[in-house]
Write a structure and sequence with these properties.
By secondary structure, the chain is mainly β. It is 14% helix and 56% strand. Strand 1 and strand 2 form a beta hairpin. The longest helix has 26 residues.
């Protein structure tokens, strides 16, 4: 009788433990397992393309990520052709399960521009961006995202004088591919 009571008590404890595990897993959010990513982006926040690093942070009901990159912006004027450096910075919120996420965020890209050949002091231009898109981040390391990234820019950057001020809205998009670790 003693062995039967002990066996019954152990089975009740084991079943309760299994049930508690199942409930916990059912309600826990899916986390991003590989939080560091390196990727190439065509279009997007660096206008034509960039090389980027992204770091994701897991929270209870969503994830967030920050990103920094570097790209080159080709431009021509009547005097010469230029490649201006551009540095995109972005913060995103990720909503989804397992590997599939809806990504929303805001970003800014800093571009260093020389207006003419003889000018020694650079002008820093900030381009604002928004993002809404899809992000696939698999546990095996595949990183893929596609998004609508409209540009908000100062329209006076193309003017020789700054008497025409204001902001322009340019619809834009970007696609990224890389690896997470």
């Amino acid at each position: 009788m003693k062995n039967l009571t002990l066996a019954f008590a152990l089975s009740v404890i084991t079943i309760g433990s299994i049930q508690a595990q199942r409930k916990y897993n059912r309600y826990s959010p899916k986390k991003i397992k590989k939080v560091h990513s390196f990727f190439l982006e065509g279009g997007g926040n660096a206008v034509y393309g960039s090389v980027n690093y992204d770091r994701a942070f897991n929270f209870r009901k969503f994830a967030a990520s920050v990103r920094i990159g570097v790209g080159l912006f080709p431009a021509t004027n009547s005097e010469a052709n230029y490649l201006y450096p551009i540095i995109p910075l972005e913060g995103n919120l990720l909503f989804g399960k397992k590997n599939h996420f809806i990504e929303t965020g805001l970003g800014v890209s800093n571009m260093v521009v020389y207006r003419s050949i003889g000018q020694d002091t650079p002008k820093f231009i900030l381009l604002g961006f928004a993002r809404i898109g899809y992000r696939l981040q698999k546990a095996n390391g595949l990183f893929l995202r596609v998004g609508f990234t409209p540009i908000l820019m100062d329209i006076a950057i193309n003017e020789q004088t700054n008497n025409k001020r204001g902001f322009g809205f340019i619809p834009w998009a970007g696609i990224s591919i890389g690896e997470s670790f």
